[in-house]
Amino acid sequence: MIEPSKKLQELPPYFLSKINLLKLEAYKKKLDVIDLGMGNPDIPTPPHIVERLCETIKDHPRTHRYPQAKGMPKFRASIAEWFEKRFHVSLNPEKEILSLIGSKEGIAHLCMAYLNPDDLALVGNPGYPVHFNGVYLTGGKVHFVPLKKDKNYLPDLEEIPEKIAKKAKILFLNYPNNPTTATVDNLEFFERVVHFAKKYEILVAHDNAYSEITFDGYEAPSFLQVPGAKDVGIEFFSFSKTYNMAGWRVGFAVGGEKWIAPFEKLKSFLDYGVPTFIQLAASWALKSSQECVQQTVLKYQKRRDFMVQGLAKLGWDVPTPKATMYLWAELPEAFKTEGSLSFSERLIKETGVAVSPGVGFGPYGEGFIRMALVTHDKRFHDALLRIKNFLKIAPPKKGG
Fold first, then answer.
1. Assigned domain for 61 exists
2. Which of 46, 138, 337, 369 lies 20 to 30 angstroms, CA to CA, from 195?
């Protein structure tokens, strides 16, 4: 009997798959599902981006052909221009920028480009699953670096044992953070990261997918703003959240040439890159008015405020995030012994409200759930009513 590879079989269950199965069961039972589980934007892609795509496909049939794996020059030039304007960091479009079929794909491929079997990666936990699953798929080893509430969900680099730091090859970071919504307020933390990476010769991979989804005047920095960051790191960006282009599958990586070149080489063997017509539409997204991004941010901010205030009225105090499209909520006191997975399963089965269990983001996510603010504005009122009844009536299961 031919079986899947051991690397695939040894992957931990993808928590969203289980939640998706429960959603399907709920749909079959004719239950009205309010999906706050997956971070899948419900806001449409801005019309001017869609129109540019349609015009390109219709009027320029050459864009239907195979694209360039590294990204077409126009796309890379628009990224460099946007990056300079946004972060005041200069990039060489030819050598320091690489197009990606979404940042998730890029992170997994980065692991393939740099990790050998048994190589070690440092991964913040709780964290976005591809940060550790990408390592596992290469046969690499993961050392989880705890992201703790009392330390603002920033990794304590000094607590990493020296023997571990010396073995490590990649350090994964993600700020603004998914799932905890934590942010980096200035460059001081990134400066410590650069020093740490240089000391132990570690590649830093910073996932900056939520750089533009920020509130209350907060602006997320780029890791590359720190002097010397290009020497040790690479940074990932996505169009999925910024421009609501999740289904388009387009993003990019930026960093020092010595990191980008092997990455590009790997991708040239594995895929043909982002379709040219999508690259041109993404380029237009970067170069045209950013009012659409501001409107998206305002919509998420309104949803954030409504949910945080509504949950507080139920006696569930949830921090108000400065960034991302999520709420990271510690389980109410009466439910803490149940566990996040059991809580999430019962919530969808009994109310139709789907959320993500914190343990799905790693062991240090236990005791929390993540709510994605990705449904129609009018549905959040219904979600709060259902959660209110659940917290009031549903008895917590001991030991989940």
1. yes
2. 138
